[in-house]
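Before the break, one more example. Copy the sequence into your notebook; we will annotate it together after we see the structure.
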Amino acid sequence: MGRLRPLVLASASPQRKLLLKDVRKRFEIVPSNVDETTDEKNPRKMVTDLAVKKALHVAARRPEAVVLGADTTVVCKGQIIGKPADPDDAMRILRLLNGDWQDVYTGVCVVKDGKVWKTAVRSRVKARRLSDDELRRLAGKHMDKAGAYAVQDEDDPFIERISGEKDNVIGLPRKAVRTLLRRAEASRPGRPSKTRRRPGLRKAAA
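Here is what the structure looks like once it is written out:
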């Protein structure tokens, strides 16, 4: 088997960096910094499309590498929820999620030699019901997270239960990443690969 290409993570997220270290010890970080706005309404397609957009943007600068992109969003009561714009928006989001179930989607994309492998993973999350005073203490604490909370923060009491993969809620489903990397690294130059899609929903910015 030939030497593995360098792996590049197209994200500055410290959580994704930590999760990827469990999959691959050595990789580089090159944030994509792309515009993450989208008109897509299906959360599964939305996170997948943005993950592809991020990975392709970095792959254009690093064509010799295998590039991994990811994107996460939260869906509750029919609303697609990305990162809060400010503390007031974080409070609005937390009130919406308070005491209720929500879906967390993460899209993952791997690009190698212009070929794209992609998928999306969903987890279900139940928020604990908190008082307005408790929500205010949380609002603004996690401005860089979709949903304005962080399940990995032991001092954040907001999440009560998770059904599905916790690492997906944090921002990078490792099982899916391993599968896509294995497929990409086994591929040979030639015609673009046809990627297998999971049965779908649709996505927004996160």
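The chain has one domain: 7-186. Residues 192-206 have pLDDT under 50 and may be disordered. Try to locate both features in your own notes.
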